[in-house]
Structure formats: C-alpha cells, structure tokens
Specification:
By secondary structure, the protein is α+β, with helices and mostly antiparallel strands. 50% of the residues lie in helices and 8% in strands. Keywords: Cell membrane, Cell projection, Cilium, Flagellum, Membrane, Transmembrane, Transmembrane helix.
C-alpha cells in the first residue's frame, strides 16, 4: 500500500486526510460544553471528507490484494456502517443522544471505519488494536468509558469541598445569580433533591416568553404567580440557549378579563406554567407544568441551588477519539 510522509509522520494518504477531523471535533466539544448548540452545517463537510477518505482507502486496499480488501477494509467498514450507524440512530430515537451527538457518531462511522496507523520515529500508534474491528466503534467504547469516569471525578470534587449529598455524583451547588447563564437542570424541588428537575433552557424560554428576568421573579414572586400578569402578547421563547439574540417586552401589558371571570387564577395555574406550555410551538425539553412550577418555587426562595450541568456527549467523544488515535482501544487494553 502506498504511504505518504509528512513532517516525519508515515501513514497512508487517507489516514493523513482523516486527521483534519480532529481539530473540528475539538471545536465542537468546546462549543457543546459552552453552548449546547452545534450547527448541522458542521457535519456536511466532514461527511464529504470521510467519504473521500473511504473511497481512497478502498482503492488502496483493492490494489493491495484480496486479503487487504476483505479483512483490512471491507470487514471493518461493514462493522462501522452496520453497527455504529444503527447504534447512533437508535439512541437518538429513544432520546439517549441529542441530534448533534448522533450526527457526530454517523460522521465518525464514515470517517474512521478502519484502524489508522501513524509512525512517529520509532513509535507506531495506536498502540492497542483489536485483530478485527472498526475504529469508530473503538472511539464509541472509549467515549463511554470516559463518560463513566466523569461522575466519579465529580463526586471526588464535591467530597473534597465538603459537599456531601446524594446528587454529588451528577452536580454541584451554584448561586441563583448564575442560573440565567448556566446550562443543565435543577436537582431540587420544594420537597427535596431530585435527579429530574427543571431544565434551565426551559426556564430561559419561560422567562423570555414572559419578558422577565429571574431577579424580577425573586423580587415579586406573589405577583408573578398570578397568571393574570401573563403578557397579552408573549415574546418569542427562543430555544433557551444562553446566547440567544432576542429582545423582549416587559410585563406592562397583561391579560385582561372580559368580565366573564374566565381567566385562570393563581390557584388554577400558578406562574402561568400551563399557559406557557400550551402557547409555545413545540415542547420545552419535556418540561411539565408541575416541573416548571417546582423549579420556580425553588429559584425564588433559595440563594444556592444544586444543578446538574450534564455531560455534553461530544466532550467524551472527542476524548475517545484522541485516546483511540494515541493509545487505541481502552476496553481491549483493560481486559488484556
């Protein structure tokens, strides 16, 4: 098979081409951590790059002979496209992955079906490679193992700080003032801790819809519990992103009764939570009126709240990619 030498690195042409994926995945991991938003346009050029590398790899393997074509190219490619792609789709379909996570795995299945090989002086990486296997599947298993370690690291961090709580493996406490600029979900309700509290993106959607800030709610909670103070012309809720560019009206214009007493009362719909969810186009990340009300009650009374930032899956995916390129298969190395 023909090899290309670049700055002391020896590898096939397709494997060198695949290295262009690494900085792009680094950028997506950073952006996913900061904003939880990745444009779909990122994946199109990566898919084209992966397709070009795949065709180039196939041509090299075909010319190298039957063994290289069948066992070094065709079999791992079949595993990558026939296993990783369905896994990505399945987990997206059941809600285990976000859209960007699933697209990232689809791109990796196309870009890295076979194990690359890079020679750096006397070193050849990856170090641990299975006899038969798809490199994209190794990236996925590495990402899962990294994802398992993160809660343990979070628990240690909380324990060292003296923050001992049942939710210490998935979150930490922050001031209410940081909530408007934080991604994640609340781990508290008025009755105690929970693992499925209010999504903070849904909270931002609600506040923008009403034209209010969290500080406004905290200053006048009794007023804003009353759905009669809902705006007559609500603002666009956006998608809840911290960085959303939106201007909103305040609460000066409110719903008014026509004299038939049909407006909901604070007892019927505290905070106007049901009215908000009924009015928006789509859902607020699965938020229910009860979850929204519980979250608001906590946020207008507590100075510090526990939140779970979650782990944007593109972060362990990028870590899994880097580990795979350098070390190889973590699962194989652990078992052997």
């Amino acid at each position: 098979m023909p090899y290309v030498t670049l700055a002391g690195t020896v590898a096939t042409g397709p494997d060198l081409l695949r290295l262009l994926v690494v900085p792009v995945f680094a950028w997506t991991a950073v952006r996913d951590l900061a904003t939880r938003r990745i444009s779909s346009s990122v994946w199109i050029p990566l898919s084209l790059l992966g397709t070009a590398a795949l065709v180039w790899d196939g041509w090299i393997a075909w010319n190298a002979g039957q063994y290289a074509w069948s066992y070094e190219f065709l079999l791992p490619t079949a595993i990558s496209l026939g296993l990783v792609v369905p896994i990505a789709y399945l987990f997206w379909w059941i809600g285990g992955f976000g859209g960007a996570d699933a697209k990232a795995l689809l791109v990796l299945a196309v870009c890295f079906p076979t194990f690359p090989e890079y020679t750096l002086g006397s070193w050849t990486v990856p170090l641990e490679t299975p006899p038969l296997g798809a490199f994209s599947f190794t990236i996925l298993t590495n990402a899962v193992l990294v994802g398992v370690v993160l809660p343990l690291a979070l628990a240690v961090r909380n324990a060292v700080a003296g923050r001992i709580a049942p939710v210490m493996v998935i979150g930490w406490p922050i001031s209410w003032e940081r909530i408007p600029d934080t991604h994640g979900s609340l781990l508290e309700t008025p009755t105690g801790r929970t693992r499925r509290g209010l999504d903070l993106d849904a909270l931002r959607m609600y506040l923008r819809w009403r034209g209010l800030s969290l500080a406004d709610l905290r200053e006048h909670p009794d007023r804003y519990r009353d759905p009669a103070t809902l705006p007559a012309e609500p603002n666009p809720p956006t998608d809840g992103a911290v960085s959303a560019d939106v201007s909103v009206r305040g609460d000066g214009r409110t719903l008014e009764s026509d004299g038939d007493d049909t407006l909901p009362t604070a007892a019927d719909d505290p905070w106007g939570a049901a009215a908000f969810l009924d009015d928006i186009d789509g859902s607020a990340y699965g938020t229910t009126p009860e979850t929204l009300r519980d979250g608001l009650e906590v946020l207008v009374t507590e100075e510090t709240v526990w939140i779970s930032p979650g782990t944007p899956f593109l972060v362990p995916v990028f870590a899994g990619l880097v580990i795979a390129l350098g070390y190889g298969d973590l699962l194989l190395g652990t078992l052997l």
